[in-house]
Automatic annotation (TrEMBL):
InterPro entries, A to Z: Peripla_BP_I, SBP_2_dom
Primary location: other
Protein name listed in UniProt: Sugar ABC transporter substrate-binding protein
UniProt keyword Ribonucleoprotein present: no
Gene Ontology cellular-component annotations: cell envelope
Residue ranges of domain Periplasmic binding protein in the record: 46-307
Protein family: Belongs to the bacterial solute-binding protein 2 family.
Subcellular compartments: Cell envelope
Record Pfam families: Peripla_BP_4
Keywords, ordered alphabetically: Signal
Amino acid sequence: MNILRFLPPVILSLGLVGCGQSSGPSVNAPPQAPAPAPAPVVKKDIGLVMKTLTNPFFVEMEKGARRAEKELGINLTVKTAAQETSIEQQIQLVEDLIAAKVNAIVIAPGDSQRLVPALKQAHDAGIRIVNIDNRLDPETVQQAGLAPVPFISVDNEAGAYKVGQFLAQGVSVPTEAAILEGIRSADNAKQRAAGARRGLAANPNIKLVASETANWKIDEAYTVTQQMFTKHPNIKLLFASNDIMAIGALKYLQESRHKGVKVAGFDALDEALAEIRSKRLAATVDQQAAEQGYQGIALALRLAQGSTVPLVTLIDSRLITATTLP
């Protein structure tokens, strides 16, 4: 008797499947090892050394650097001296960053020569260097055995030349002019004074009767302007190598009631733009302080990552007058 005839079809079907040929032994796959955790991103440490924060130009420069810190993902340490003439303090700040073992230093040096030995120490410690605003003296850099340092700024001579030309426009009678210089050992001070002289000299009616340093300072500019006008009371054109000194000169001229003196500055600080709107200042030059700060940090990061960067990066500058105010 065939018992299969009496089994329910479902049971019969299950039995046949169980007895059929398998494709091979059943193997359980071993548990996969978890993927390794990604290595943590190590941020580069970059130090920014500036001259001071008493000058709004450097406040803007720091803003640009802070924007770079946020966008580029680095650790930024900002150090500033008390005054633009505090060179020994700047040297100490560089030494502090060497001790902190930062990956790179971005510096706006107060002096084009005296900072070089400290920067050579930083280079020897494996720290990359970027120079912004005021250029380190190439000959001093070479003599120190320091490799050429990438530099970011504007063409200071060309910017000051634009101002000198603007001051000289329309002068058709013999006219006396004067210049307030920055720190004379600073390359940007030398370039701005040279550019202003060249621009003024383009008009044969203009005679430069005084060119004195006020060390970038508002109080010194007031005093030096007083001294220049005491000796040369007929000065009608005055170029100040930064806006801070221009404001100091304007203060003296206002208090002493000197009329008809055309004054120009350099930096496009908010205070200077307000003086242009009030028609007390004739012109200034926008050298994009925030952009210099941003690009300095960006270049330093590329160096710290092993990339090659250009030795010179010039940022556009523009003459600002009452007719070109932003």
